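Researcher: Next entry in the queue.
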Amino acid sequence: MDIFLADDGFRIAGLPLHPLLVHATVVLTPLTALAVALAAVWPAARRRMGWAPPVAAAIVAGLVPVTVLAGQSLASTVGYTPAVLQHEALGLMLIPWTIALLITALLVQLQDRMLRRAAPGAARILRIAICAAALIAAAGTIVVTVLTGDAGARAVWGGV
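Model: Structure for this entry, 160 residues:
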């Protein structure tokens, strides 16, 4: 199986790459966001999951832009309808959310080390701030993923 950029877009074994990547993105992104949120609010879960949430967040932060690029390539082949443009705009919005998710996943994972060095009052504020940021990043990532997926489904299946 070859992955390559053909004249008509990103393809794997002759198939457009975007629909194949979308399945991984739609599954991994919300699961990763949920894992980051869980690690942020439950220290025992954070210890048990270890580095899995930040690693998954790094994978998602790399997967989403590749999926967007493959989608843009596919859109140039099938045409830019209003539904496709809406889907593309939402897909582009997902990139900064996944970057925020990665940053907060790292902060959640490293917070115990950071808190040991902080003054007691500052440690409490920092803990709350990291938790809040992680929950916001996770919620935003999930919402934009769902909206993007819905817009993509409507772009493909809306006329059926």
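Model: The radius of gyration is 18 Å.
Researcher: Noted, moving on.
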